[in-house]
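step 3/5: co-fold with pyridoxal-5'-phosphate
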Amino acid sequence: MEHEMDALHRPGAATGEETLDPTDWAVLGALSHRIVDDAIGFLRDVRERPVWRDMPAEVRTFFDTALPRSPAPLGEVYRQVTENVMSYPMGNIHPRFWSWYMGSSNFTGALADFLAAIQGSNLGGGNHAAALLDAQVVNWLKEMVGFPASASGTLVSGGSMANLIGLTVARNVKAGVDVREHGVAAIDKPLRFYASDQVHSCHRKALEELGLGNRALRRIPSDAGFRMDVAALAAAIAQDRAAGFLPACIIANAGTVNTGAIDDLSAIGDLAAEEDIWFHVDGCIGALIAIAPENALRVDGIGRADSLALDPHKWLHAPFEVGCALIRDPSAHHAAFAVTSEYLEATSRGLAAAAWLHEYGLQTTRGFRALKVWMALKEHGAEKFGRLIDQNIAQARYLTTLIEAEPLLELAAPTTINIVCFRYRAKGVEAEALKAINTEIMLRLQEEGTAAISDTTVHGEHCLRVAITNHRTHRDDLFLLVEETVRLGNEIAGS
Ligand SMILES: *Cc1c(COP(=O)(O)O)cnc(C)c1O
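step 4/5: write tokens
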């Protein structure tokens, strides 16, 4: 028998088996060093480049090229990436990018993503260092926002998924039936969730995915400061109870996406407790203000939430993607997602002797997204991230002051944190025409490469919107934005 097996043995490389590893590691090393040098230059000189530029036709057609079936030298592949991809970025690492809402990344985080990919670990679970580090980052985030150490949490792809995780636990806890076993059709009274009319669209999608439907998310009017009207919320809950609904969950905003408004978290938390309703906070924008010494008071009460979504790829500037869901009751969290499959049983020793992280969310395979948060926090310390948040809020206040001092501009909403809503105003121009002028200003700022800002409509009125989640912005940049907005506005309105 043994003899037969020996006859089947083929030594090492003699079999002609293929691998993705290089034939010459030294050549790979030289190219890799060049890529790192280029990357450092790319980031160092970002200010010298336009924020954004549109792709010429020949670059667009590059993305129609056929499936490569045979090899090309890696150096040639890299050249194609440099020319066609690296040259046309979204621009959110640029000091004058303030569109929508996103962080501006950092080099250490990029190194971490590289190392994570090199190690290649799967954080679905297992007894290995990356899994422990992932849990440590969740613990640090709990501490940063004032959640108890006993709470549980999970890193996910971003805020949308983090909110979905929180709302799923809320639904399962409040449904009154075993939703996982019997489905939403078994729920006795229709569940109601509540949020202000400023709530992010991911909550609508979450309610749809949860099988409750968009109408189960009742929008409560917001006040002049774009905060949820708590009296209207209480009235809606009473009305729903009387009509036979089951009020299940209140979603409070710690920083709305339109204007940065922060709901009255303490009052809403009190009401949720009195009414025995799940208290979820969407803190994708503002949860981390808890570490900013000058502004932390604004999110007082956030640590009381039953569940909280936050987004390290926003104000911690982690490279995309990383979000985090925190759940106060760890057993409710586990009960919402755990399934022990016969092929994923834990053992007392060895590789499977650990908590399965996939039992706290929807993914099975999970990437090592924790490392980019961990390395940047270790390098800079949490206090510096807190100061950077304060800095962005102070910059938004500075921009607000510039707008107030400029007769051709007006604020469209009060500035609370780092989001400024404003518009160019032209005498005797009605709303439609004003929207066209402001949209044109926004597009020219983008196309000229000066600044990337976005627009929105708040309480029925169109405006330009600047969201400063950017550790590279200087006040000079905001001064330039105001000058250029006025110049373009005059040019467009005059023509
Ligand atoms: C960004 C954001 C989200 C969605 O988070 P993603 O990371 O983009 O998935 C949800 N809510 C608010 C308030 C946000 O600002």
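step 5/5: annotate
The radius of gyration is 26 Å.
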